[in-house]
Write a structure and sequence with these properties.
Elements: H1 4-14, H2 18-25, H3 30-36, H4 41-47, H5 50-64, H6 68-75, H7 80-89, E1 96-98, E2 105-107, E3 122-124, E4 129-133, E5 157-159, E6 164-168, E7 181-183, E8 188-191, E9 210-212, E10 217-220, E11 234-236, E12 241-242
Parallel strand pairs: 1-3, 2-4, 3-5, 4-6, 5-7, 6-8, 7-9, 8-10, 9-11, 10-12
Helix pairs in contact: 5-7
Length: about 260
């Protein structure tokens, strides 16, 4: 049964043209505008429209937020419509995204698939409270580790240590020919170390120098091809559930340390 007060509220808003509602509510800080969607079905339709979301962000981001870090922290909490449009407007052109120690809570949103800038070189999500899988939507991430992360041809550093991320490492990591640092310790990543990861050895870019996958739930053996990473200086695979023998190819690396004792 619909309460009378709700009927009055619904009817009152329907007499106001959508463009008028959008113009008025666009001045609200996004968090407040999002809450106002609950007032009526008609209002929800008006404020969920992509043109309103874009207008709301244009009107408020520069005037009501004094710290861009606050905006980025809020971005992880916004509804998907806000996340996608903000990512398209602002984040898609970034060459470096340093979100470490920002007290970010929750999952990596599907909107990260819009971080398509091929010039993106640094993506740092370390020391937050992120949980769930690493998105297969990271270009197109999808709530697990980005299956299409290989599209970021210029990516040099990907850090997401000290979170609660889970899922398997995608084979497309091997397409990141200029990757220098892959730092994912202290998560809940499982499965095996993909052989494709050892493709990150572009000699001109002196790629993959640091690989830290410690304190996860990785299993099976260490790929023999890891010896292809001739510029590797830091290799930490400790505190996992790796088995088998230590590949002889590891001896060819310039520097290596913190390899785990392997179970047989």
């Amino acid at each position: 049964m619909i309460r009378k007060s709700n009927v009055v509220k619904q009817n009152a808003f329907t007499y106001i043209p959508p463009e008028v509602i959008q113009a008025v509510f666009s001045k609200l800080e996004p968090r407040q505008a999002i809450k106002c969607r609950r007032l009526s079905r008609y209002l929800n339709e008006c404020l969920n429209d992509p043109s309103f979301v874009r207008l709301n962000l244009l009107e408020t981001i520069d005037t009501q937020y004094t710290d861009i870090d606050i905006v980025h922290r809020e971005w992880f909490k916004w509804p998907e419509s806000y996340q996608e449009i903000y990512a398209t407007m602002v984040l898609s052109n970034a060459e470096a995204l340093n979100w470490s120690t920002r007290r970010i809570v929750g999952r990596i949103p599907p909107a990260v698939k819009l971080l398509r800038n091929p010039q993106l070189q640094v993506l740092n999500l370390s020391s937050n409270y992120l949980r769930g899988p690493i998105p297969t939507e990271l270009l197109t991430w999808k709530d697990v580790f980005p299956a299409d992360i290989g599209r970021l041809k210029k990516l040099r550093q990907f850090s997401a240590e000290l979170n609660f991320l889970k899922g398997e490492l995608p084979k497309s990591l091997g397409q990141l020919e200029q990757l220098q640092c892959l730092l994912l310790p202290s998560n809940r990543i499982s499965g095996k170390i993909p052989e494709e990861l050892t493709n990150c050895w572009d000699l001109e870019a002196l790629s993959l120098r640091s690989l830290d996958l410690s304190y996860n739930n990785l299993s099976q053996g260490i790929p023999y091809e890891i010896g292809n990473l001739i510029n590797l200086q830091v290799l930490d695979l400790s505190h996992n559930r790796l088995t088998g023998e230590l590949p002889s190819s590891v001896a060819s690396l310039s520097y290596w340390a913190l390899l785990p004792p392997l179970a047989t």
